[in-house]
Design goal:
Shape: globular
Helix content: under 10%
Number of strands: 8
Structural class: mainly beta
Order of helices and strands: EEEEEEEE
CATH architecture: Beta Barrel
CATH superfamily: RNA polymerase II/Efflux pump adaptor protein, barrel-sandwich hybrid domain
Number of domains: 1
Distance between the termini: 5 Å
CATH class: Mainly Beta
CATH topology: OB fold (Dihydrolipoamide Acetyltransferase, E2P)
Length: about 80
């Protein structure tokens, strides 16, 4: 299993907006460079991109919760 890691500390979001669907769902195909989520730092939203390809398994970080740099936020098969 591959993991997508948070590039920096902040608040993780798995959706582009509160009323939108998550970027990825279980079983979705993921390509290198696909957006998996967002990390907010000081009112700035940074897209978290996958550096591996595979099948999306699950989010490992909770939506709207703090994450640390290098923390796994999603798992791929």
């Amino acid at each position: 299993m591959s993991q997508v890691l948070s590039p920096l500390p902040g608040t993780f979001y798995k959706k582009p907006s509160p009323d939108a669907a998550p970027y990825k769902s279980k079983g979705d195909q993921v390509a290198v460079g696909d957006t998996i989520g967002l990390v907010e730092v000081m009112k700035t939203f940074i897209e978290v991109k996958s550096d591996a390809s595979g099948t999306f398994r699950e989010y490992l970080a909770d939506d709207s919760c703090p994450v640390m740099a290098g923390q796994p936020i999603a798992g791929l098969e």
